[in-house]
Amino acid sequence: MPHHAQRIETPLEVLVHRGAEAVVFKPAGLSSERGQGDRGDCVARRAEVQFSWPQCWLAHRLDRPTRGIMVLAGSSESAALHSEEIRRGSWTKWYFARIPIHHNDRPASGLVGDHRAYLKRAGRLASLVRSGGAPSRLSILAVEPSQDNPSEAHALIRLDTGRFHQIRVMLAGLGFPLVGDIDYGAPATSKRATMRTLEYPEIDLEAVALRVVRSEQAAIYRLRHHPARQGVSEELERALDRALEATGPPRPPTLEGDLNDC
Questions:
Q1: How many alpha carbons fall within 13 Å on the CB side of residue 228?
Q2: Superfamily of the domain at 1-88
Q3: What is the CA radius of gyration of the chain?
Q4: For residue 239, what are the CA distances in angstroms to 18, 130, 224?
Q5: What predicted TM-score, i.e. pTM, was given to this entire model?
Q6: Regarding the domain with residue range 90-247, which homologous superfamily does it belong to in the CATH classification?
Q7: What are 2-55's pLDDT values in tens digits?
């Protein structure tokens, strides 16, 4: 059956759609794509049906429990352009992540700054290693208390390299794993204490903004006050606005790595 003749139960939330390119919001719990021959629900399949594309190409992916902004391509030419832009460092990505507000009497506010690590993937997880791993970089720009839980905070993160589970494993290595991310050392929440959560960890991680420089022009994609975003303070929203305003020329080319952002 042709894609345009199929139906999808829940269409993607679209920020921009121009021909063979779309910027969409991926909900938490939805896979970015499926394995070859698997026609199950995912972002790529929804895009093919919704935009009448013969195929959807992904230059980057979001982990299944991560929600937020994704750029999709409906042609190989558009996909190649995205891949080249990422290679040149023309994309800058920001995230909100829910973390504990303290760890062993250390405040989460002490995380603000640039962080580097070496990551290595092992099956469905990743780990920090001293050598032999992929160089990984991120910057924590601000941390503010969550408005819906006094024991938690939200961090504003700029992701400088795209590695498998990068934000999750690097925050865990700093002693502040994402709340509910038991795969990386966080205590299980009471809601899912007895559930297997490898595929559906109860975490709060959102790709909240993206800046793309193309032909010396910058486009910024930003979702404000999205219904899926809970507990993020106005102070952190303003910190993101300042980061977007202050962003200068494209960053140096990122090191080659996974398609996965986190």
A1: 20
A2: Pseudouridine synthase (3.30.2350.10)
A3: 18
A4: 30, 33, 13
A5: 0.88
A6: Pseudouridine synthase (3.30.2350.10)
A7: 454 566 678 999 999 999 999 999 999 999 998 777 778 999 999 999 999 999
